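Quick look at the format.
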Amino acid sequence: MNTLFVGKKCFKLNEISSTNDWLLTRISKQKFHEGTVVFASVQTNGKGQRGSKWFSQPHKSLTFSVLLKPSFLSPKHAFDLSICVALALSDSLNKLRSGFKIKWPNDIYFEDKKIAGILIENQMSRFKYQNAVVGIGLNVNQLHFDDLSNAISLKQIIGIEFPLVKVMEHICESLEARYLMLRSGYFKVLKKAYMSNLYGLNQLQYFMVHNKKWNGKIINVLRNGLLQIELEDGEIRDYDIKEIKFLNKRN
């Protein structure tokens, strides 16, 4: 990889339940350098946001994790890293073809279909950020997704087969570039780029909160990660990922 530290140490595993779990169980027992990558050809129990599962087709999708040590970040600014990672992934995909967007907080969409997900699991003390295990799942060469009607792959979009390791290398290069920007204090630049790539920004959308349906527009993402929505009556509300669900249409 054309990087300084991301991917310089890489564990390539044939089959594993979760690359995030593999790293998390080991970093408490032994020392791993920042930028360590764990790549699995087959992941049997991948994890997504809010306890969901990430389903990946063996040898057709990309599943890997990267160890970062963002001790320069305050724990209250943990979402800065989420912005950095999501932006890096969208960067790498938009180099292949334009049109990839970040769906808050950190999924990647092409048009109205999901192509990638990110799960960041943090280890921190009360006052200090210690480790962040960044898990990335990307649909690369799949052509069928069974019951996942909103899923799509790179091969379906672009029409060619992609070598998984090469795709991973390009993502790692983009991740390191954005991470170095974050480490150098360029949060405002990263936030501006994140917002300009945000799926559904300033567009009327329909969503559910506590079993009640609303419609409104995304107008901002706050630094603490809350999504800011302007309702039809002009009221502005902030939501976290645990309380809001977006709907495909108004019912």
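Next, a different chain entirely:
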Amino acid sequence: MILRNNAASYLTSVDYDKAIPIHIISPDTIEQWIETLDPLQSKWVRNNHFKADKNEILTLSNVDGDISAVAMGIGANDENFLSVSTDPWLLAPLIKKIPQGTYRLVGEENMKLPAIGWALAQYQFDRYMNKKSDQRLLLALQDEQQKAEAETIINAIILVRDLINTPTCDMGPSHLSDVTKELAACYGATFTETVGDDLLIKGYNSIHAVGKAASNQPRLLDMTWGRLDAPKITLVGKGVCFDTGGLDIKSSSGMRIMKKDMGGAAHTLGLAKIIMEKELDVRLRLLIPAVENNIAGNAFRPGDIIRTYKGTTVEVDNTDAEGRLVLCDALALASEENPELILDFATLTGAARVAMGPTIVPFFTDGDDIAANLDHASRTENDPLWRMPLYTPYMPQLKSNSADLSNMGSGPFGGAIIAALFLKHFIKEPKKWVHFDVYAWNMNDQPGRPQGGEAMALRAVYAYLHDRFSKKP
């Protein structure tokens, strides 16, 4: 169920010329477009007072009454609008306003991003619904390569959304393990896992401490793929499948959507799927510490001190700052191989949302070249990222009187930076590491972005990886 490939249901390369044309119209081009229409259609446009305002939609019919074209307005002087080909959500408003059929976008050669938005606007998480919609609107593309690239991204984003939207009763640590095994099997990757008390034997004490109170045992998932001598990149995803907050329990409203706290793991699985499907020339490793932060008699407590995999001792100031605890063991393990690049994704802090809002993904790195290239990819893909500082003068806020570090800062400010600095301590070469603090959730419905789980920064990060690692020696 989880590894469904739905992109083929939304895109086609068959009968392009027979597809219903979609015309993107601005107030500046409307008169020129009307002149290309036959007299009856021209009259129809004027009688309906079509002005090409933003997201204004008008369908045109032929003499038989069948839909013959669609006009969509983009408005005038929208400072956020870049171009038709670079707006992934351009076509998304059409989906609920036009009938089932096969369509094509007129006058555009680069269709990858509009095609992605077209498909994602039809996404539904209907696993638990008895009544499922079978309506599909197809978008015809002439370029097979663009179609293939779009389909790869679409299927990865659908995977991320499905994983996050699935409730914890069906997406606990063992279920996340099953998905990773299935993904590994699909692409010929190697999978291992360390489960329960075996975590203690290997020194993954932080992962064990956070997850030991749950009946679904904590585990570290480890997948590898690619030729042995290729450049090594390691993805680390926070897999907290549910977060009660632990003994520092969250409010009921704060806990309501905490099934999404494995959103970082979902992102790394989606990104790994793209990397393997597109056969980037890398030695890929994926590490997911998968736990539930539950409450029971053996739950870890405020004031407990944990000896991490690196050997650093950490005093637990707050059990609701558990994400950095499970990540620190995985990041220290990742650093042992000294890979070319370590990328971690985590729904780590509310402070990141205060700073950036729910959509812009802050990232942290000491690698200036990596940051510059990620910024470029973000702009090219129209996938918002923003670099934040690893401001070392804040590091003393992680001081503990009883251990090497505390898992929380001593003050109320700069929480996203403090958390990133905590993670940085466990990285051997911070210039080769990037931390993404993702929200992984759409708060409200928008065209192409329904309320619920969401993949954020995935397109930009893959574009960066493709530019850097796509060429074989």
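The domain at 7-142 is CATH 3.40.220.10 (Leucine Aminopeptidase, subunit E; domain 1).

See the schema section for token definitions.
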